[in-house]
Amino acid sequence: MARKFTPKVLTANDLRLGDVVYMTASGDWTRCHAEAELLEDEADAELRLLKAHGQSGIVVGAYLADAKAGPDGPEPVHFREAFRSRGPSNYDLGKQADSKRGTAHV
Amino acid sequence: MYEYSDFDEAFVRARAAQFRQQVERRLDGSLTEEEFRPLRLMNGLYLQLHAYMLRIAIPYGTLSAGQMRQLAMIAERWDEGYGHFTTRQNIQFNWPKLVDVPDIIDALADVQMHAIQTSGNTIRNTTTDVFAGAAADEIADPRPIAELIREWSTDHAEFQFLPRKFKIAITGTEADRAVIRAHDIGLQLVEKDGEIGLKVLVGGGLGRTPMLGQVIRDFLPVADLLPYLEAVISTYNLMGRRDNKYKARIKITVFENGLDAFKAAVEEEFARIRPTFSGVDQEILRVIAAQFAPPAFKNDPVDSYEAALSVDPVFRRWVARNITAHKVENHAIVTISLKEHGKTPGDATADQMRVMADLADRYGYGELRISHEQNVVLPHVAKADLPAVHAELLRAGLATANVGLLSDMICCPGMDYCALATARSIPVAENLATHFRDIGLEDEIGNLKIKISGCINACGHHHIGHIGILGLDRAGVENYQITLGGDAGPQAAIGDKTGPGFAYDEVVPAIERILRAYLALRESPAETFIDAFRRLGAAPFKEALYGENRDAA
C-alpha cells in the first residue's frame, strides 16, 4: 500500500544570502514560513519541486518539508524546520531578529 | 611565527582570485550548484541551516595579534560580530553572504590566512598541542613539522580526492594535548639515543564508528616523515573504500584489512618512494624551524605577581585554574576561557578578539593559540604581567576561571547552525554550565571533561569525554545519549553508552544524578570523576542514572 502523503511546504536557501526561503502560492519566494503554500497534493508538490530545481540562479537545495495548517498559515512539523523558520537558540539572529526589525518579507 | 614565503603569498592570492571568478560564474548562471558546490567546499564555504558558513584555517592553531584583529574586522564587517572557534583549532563564521565571501577571502589573504582545505576529502589543518613551544614537558616544538606538513599537503595533486577527509595531529609530549589517538594519523615526537623521531599512529577517528589509532611505527626518523606520510595516504587512497561514505575513513581501511596487511602495503610503498625524496624537504624544515624560534623572553622579577596572588582571591582562583607552567620559570601559559557560564562554548565577539589581540601584543610577544578545547591561549606571558592581563580580561568578560571544570565543555554547533545535526547541543551546554554554577557544585566536582555532539559525526568529541552527550532525533524528538569513561589524553578511551537516552529537558537532571553519585562514592576530593569511574566501573553510575526503572526508562 502506498504511504499516505502528508502536507508539505517547499523550502530552500537563497543563493546569494543563504537565508531560508519558502515558495508561496503565487510561485514567489518568501522568508516567512507562514506565507508558504501548504501543498496537500503529492503530484502538485512534485511539480513545485521541479520548478524550484529550475531556479538554481535564485535558490539552492530545494526540498519538500512536512508542515501543517495553523491559524496564521503553515507551521513546521519537525523541530529542524521549526529552527530553520526562526534562527539559532543562542543568539537573537536570523529570522527571529529579522521579524523584529520588520524585514521578514524582503 | 611562520611568515609566508613568496610562493605561499602567490598561491593564496591566485586561489582567492580563482574563487572570486567562481562565485561570479555561479551568480551569473554559468555554473550550476552541482558544479559550484565542490569549488566552494575547496574554499571552506558550506551552506548550513540558516546561512552560509565559512571555515577559516588557523594552521596548528597559531595566529598573530594582527591576524586576530583581522578576524574581528571580518566578524564585524561581513558577519554578525562574532566568530566560533572549533575543535580543529579553526574559526567559523556563521552568517557570511555568498556575494561577500570573495572580499572576505581577500581580507584573509591580506594577513596570510585562507580557507583552503578546510573542507572536502583532502588533508585538513594539521592540529597540535595548544601549548607547543611553551610547555615545560615537551621534547620539541611540533609546529615546524606541522608547517612542513601544511606546505606538503596543500594542493598536493595526489590527495585532493581522497576517499574521505583526512586529519593529522602532532604532539611533542607524552601528555598528548592534541588527541592524536583520535586522528587519521597521529604523530608524537619521541627521543631515542639522543635523536628526535616520530611515533606514528594510524586509523584513529571518532564519528559513527569510533576507533583509537594504532602504532604503525615506533620510531620514524624525521627525515623519513614526508615519504612515510605519502606512503600511508597513497595506500589509503588506493585501498580505502569509496562505495560507502560511512566506511571510507582510514580507520575502516585499517580495521577491515588489519594493521599488519595495511602496514605491509605502506612499507612497500615507502621503500619505493623514499629514494625520490632528495632531502629538499629537510632543508625547508630547517628554514621553517628558524621561524619558530622562541621570543626573547623578558627577565622581569615575579614579586608583583606574588604580591597579587597573596591579596587578590579572584586573581588567585584564575591563576589556579587558567595558568599552566611555562618552560621558562618566570613565564606562564594563559588559557583565556571562551566558556563563560550560559554562553556558547568557543564563541568570541569582535571586541573580545581585539582585546585578546591587544593583550598578545602588549604582554604575549604578539602570539595567540586556539585550543581544540575551544579556548584561546597566550602561550608566553611574563608572570609579572599576569595581574594586568587578568584585569583586562575581567573588563572584557574573558576572565572565567573554569579551565578543566565542568563548564569548560567542548560543544559542536549542533542544530542551531549545522545542516548535519540531529539535535541541538549549544543550549544543552549552556544549561549544564549555569545549573552546576547555580547549585554551587562545579568546584566541588573539580576536573571533568564533558563533551557534546549534535550528531553522530562527533565534532564535539563526545566519545572521548569523561561524560559524553550525543544529541539524536528519535521519531521527531530530540533525544540525548550519554556515554561514560571516555578520555582524550594519554589514557585515551572511547566511552560506553549508559543505556536509553534522555529528552532535552531531562539531560541536566541526568548529569546531576551521575555527578552526585560520584561525589558520594569518591575516596577523597583528590579522586577525580574519571579516576573514580575507572576504579568503580559504570555500574554505580548507571544505577544512579536509571535507578530501578532502568529497563523501562
At a glance:
The complex is a heterodimer of chains A (106) and B (553). Chain A is an alpha+beta fold.
Question: What can be said about the biggest beta sheet of chain B?
Answer: 6 strands, mixed
Give the chain pair forming the largest contact, with residue counts: A-B, 25 and 32 residues
Between the first and last Cα atoms of chain A, what is the distance in angstroms? 43 Å
Beta percentage of chain A is: 15-25%
Protein name (chain B): Nitrite/sulfite reductase
Organism (chain B): Paenirhodobacter populi
InterPro entries (chain B): NIR_SIR_4Fe-4S, NiRdtase/SiRdtase_haem-b_fer, Nit/Sulf_reduc_fer-like_dom_sf, NO2/SO3_Rdtase_4Fe4S_dom, NO2/SO3_Rdtase_4Fe4S_sf
Keywords (chain B): 4Fe-4S, Heme, Iron, Iron-sulfur, Metal-binding, Oxidoreductase
Account of the protein in words:
The complex is a heterodimer of chains A (106) and B (553). By secondary structure, chain A is α+β, with helices and mostly antiparallel strands. Chain A has one domain (8-100). Chain A contains 3 helices and 5 strands, in the order βββαββαα. Chain A has helices at 42-53, 79-86, 95-101; strands at residues 8-14, 20-23, 29-30, 59-68, 75-76. Chain A has a 5-stranded antiparallel β-sheet with strand order 3-2-1-4-5. The model of chain A has no long low-confidence stretch (mean pLDDT 92). Chain B is an alpha+beta fold. Chain B has 4 domains: 6-110, Alpha-Beta Complex (Sulfite Reductase Hemoprotein, domain 2); 134-291, Sulfite Reductase Hemoprotein, domain 1 (2-Layer Sandwich), CATH 3.30.413.10; 303-395, Sulfite Reductase Hemoprotein, domain 2; 410-549, Sulfite Reductase Hemoprotein, domain 1. Helices cover 37% and strands 18% of the residues of chain B. Chain B has helices spanning 6-27, 33-41, 65-78, 101-110, 143-153, 225-239, 250-257, 259-273, 280-291, 303-311, 313-322, 350-363, 386-395, 426-438, 442-445, 507-521, 529-536, 539-546, and strands spanning 45-47, 52-56, 62-64, 82-85, 91-93, 127-128, 168-171, 185-192, 195-202, 214-221, 323-325, 331-336, 347-349, 367-370, 376-382, 410-411, 450-453, 467-474, 477-484, 496-497, 502-503. Chain B is globular. Chain B starts with 5 loop residues before the first helix and ends in a 7-residue tail after the last helix. The chains are: A alpha+beta (106), B alpha+beta (553). Chain A: InterPro entries: DUF2849 (IPR021270). Chain A: This is DUF2849 domain-containing protein. Chain A: Residues 95-106 have a biased composition (Basic and acidic residues). Chain A: Pfam families: DUF2849. Chain A: Residues 82-106 are annotated as: Disordered.
